Amino acid sequence: MKDLVSIITPCYNSSDFIEETIQSVLNQTYDNWEWLITDDLSTDNTVEILRKYNDPRIKLEVLEKNGGAGNARNQSLKRAQGRYIAFLDSDDYWYPNYLETMIGYMEDHKAELVYCNYSRCDENLNPVLKDFQADKIVTFSNLLKTCRLAPVATVYDSQRVGKFLFPENSKREDHVMWLNLLKQVPEGYPVKQTLAKYRMRENSVSRKKKHIIKDQYLVYKDFMGFSTLKSLYYTANWALNGFLKYSKIFN
Length: 251
Known about the structure:
Layout: E1 5-11, H1 18-26, E2 33-39, H2 46-50, E3 58-62, H3 69-79, E4 84-87, E5 93-94, H4 98-109, E6 113-121, E7 127-132, H5 140-143, E8 154-157, H6 158-161, H7 173-184, E9 189-199, H8 213-223, H9 228-246
Parallel strand pairs: 1-2, 1-4, 2-3, 6-9
Antiparallel strand pairs: 4-8, 5-9, 6-7, 6-8
């Protein structure tokens, strides 16, 4: 019997993209999954689209109050029953063999955390930059300087390491969660295949690097408890790596 995978999805006003995301999950060759979607009080017809699908594996919760992506992910995580935790934002896309390949690698290598290559695309899922390469083992130390883990392309084993919630008072909640996880997991392993598509939307928070320098500084200062000097050092490294990663896009 295949182990259950819990797919965690925060959702807010995603009607333009959610059906492609839904199909990418329904098309998975690994079929023992539950999809925990938490809608953050959308004002468009996202919820109506989701409710058209009668698959019992799709478990939708609609919040009564907007609380942000971190809170929405946490609500899904609290309901998750699966051994493996996977993340898929409501505008991203998996290739059909994503779960089968990622879980297979984890089982074969007894890995607690894996990540893979992914395509960096525009809003129409057309590539705008070379695929991100999962080309090195990830550790707490090297994740401080640049966040190599994207939710769309990362899976961890909650049976071995537990569940890790997201901070709800940070715009860099993904990075904080991965860092906390890698305090417990010595290494995350690369799966060197392109298995997902990440939409790099122009208006996304993560794309506006110059506007979130302060938020990134607080990752180190407040959440990691580093000194001011050490926090500035890692913020500078993160900013440089971010510039190199995205400088050729949407100029």
